[in-house]
Amino acid sequence: MQAADVMTTNVISVTADAEVREIASLLLEHGISAVPVIDADQRVLGIVSEGDLMRRVENDTEHKSWWLKLISGSSAGEYVKSHGRRAGEIMTPKPVTIGEDEPLHRIASLLEKHRIKRVPVVRDGRLVGIVSRSNLLRGFSVTAPDTGLDVTGDDREIRDAILKEVDENTGVLVDRINVIVAEGNVQLWGLVENQEEKLAVQVAAENTSGVKAVENNLGFVPRGMASF
């Protein structure tokens, strides 16, 4: 199983001039912990995470003495990240990226090595998806030795067809869900607003050609989260 089989394809992203308040609202609205920063050609410039935003909060609530600043090694770069108002100023630049054919075990190693929680997926240098730790776990659960399942080219076509149907015809936000397909067996993961949306995604999957079975693991968005 590779990145293309588990990645989130409808990636919430921002441009370098996006304001911090806008980024915080996006994270809350979509229930995510980071957003890639891209240019006009969809090339990844950096990533803004909850940690980057929290650094600003800490700066607003703490006033270090001159000697603490000295021993902590504060620099101009740290000042920009803690005081910046736009994505390009507070982002982590030049993030690790992977291709669509990257195997899951290598992605797991990358996350561990670089101590990151997610990695953008690129095609010809342009953003096409993102793989998080939860995406990986779901993929590993499908490819565990006792399942005997393997992902084929047909499975990827099925996955793309399900996501396309959900995106175009159900009104469900596809950036909140993930679809895993192995030998025609579908697993649905992520968050939806209500039971009707949960059922709509399941029906879309069941009606997709090539699907043998659907396991619906969709949960519900915590009350109040979508209102931010």
Automatic annotation (TrEMBL):
Keywords attached to this entry: CBS domain
Domain BON: 154-222
One of the Pfam families matching this protein, by short name: BON
InterPro entries, per database record: BON_dom (IPR007055), CBS_dom (IPR000644), CBS_dom_sf (IPR046342), Diverse_CBS-Domain (IPR051257), UCP036990_CBS_BON (IPR017080)
Gene3D superfamilies hit by this protein: 3.30.1340.30, CBS-domain
PROSITE patterns: BON (PS50914), CBS (PS51371)
CBS domain sequence ranges: 7-65, 91-151
Name assigned to this protein: Histidine kinase
Species annotation: Halomonas heilongjiangensis
